[in-house]
Amino acid sequence: MTSYRGDEDGGDASRTRILDAIRALPAGSVAGYGHIARRAGLPGRARLVAWVLRHNADPALPWHRVLRSDGRIAFAPDTAGFREQVRRLRAEGVVVTRGRVRMPAAETPLDLALWGPPDAAS
DNA sequence: ATTTTGACGACCC
DNA sequence: TGGGTCGCCAAAA
Q1: CATH code of the domain covering residue A27
Q2: Which nucleotide's C1' sits nearest to the alpha carbon of A32?
Q3: Model-level pTM greater than 0.85?
Q4: Scanning A68, A86, A87, A106, which has its CA 20 to 30 A from the CA of A77?
Q5: Which residues contact residue A57 at a Cβ distance below 8 angstroms, ignoring those fewer than 6 apart?
Q6: Boundaries of domain holding A77
Q7: What pLDDT is stored for residue A2 in this prediction?
Q8: Number of independent structural domains in chain A
Q9: Nucleic chain C: which protein residues 22-51 of A have CB below 7 A from it?
């Protein structure tokens, strides 16, 4: 409680919710930044998700399951991060072609079963 | 206080 | 599929 207006989460809670949403990603699945933001109750804050990931220090976080909305890896192709992400994804059975992944139409039946409807924030 | 930057996204052609 | 524009939010310069 960094002391301020009670209604304000101070972005701290937002950060937590984002990390939470990412941790909820099933192995072998992928999601876009915007998708995560939405799941975290922060529609339109895709860039905030990116910011959180950039500042993330938790090695257990499945950050590699987060891609751009077009299924493309966010890192530049010639970076270590890029290669690392491809490596991790493939290790989970995800098909990565030319630094890009086949994105689920939107909500695969499986996702709905695991995540429930978009509104029912867990 | 203004500008630039970034692990973004929806649109348009 | 690919490239460019504009909108968006928070941080850093």
Answers
A1: 1.10.10.10
A2: B8
A3: no
A4: A106
A5: none
A6: 12-115
A7: 39
A8: 1
A9: 44-48, 51
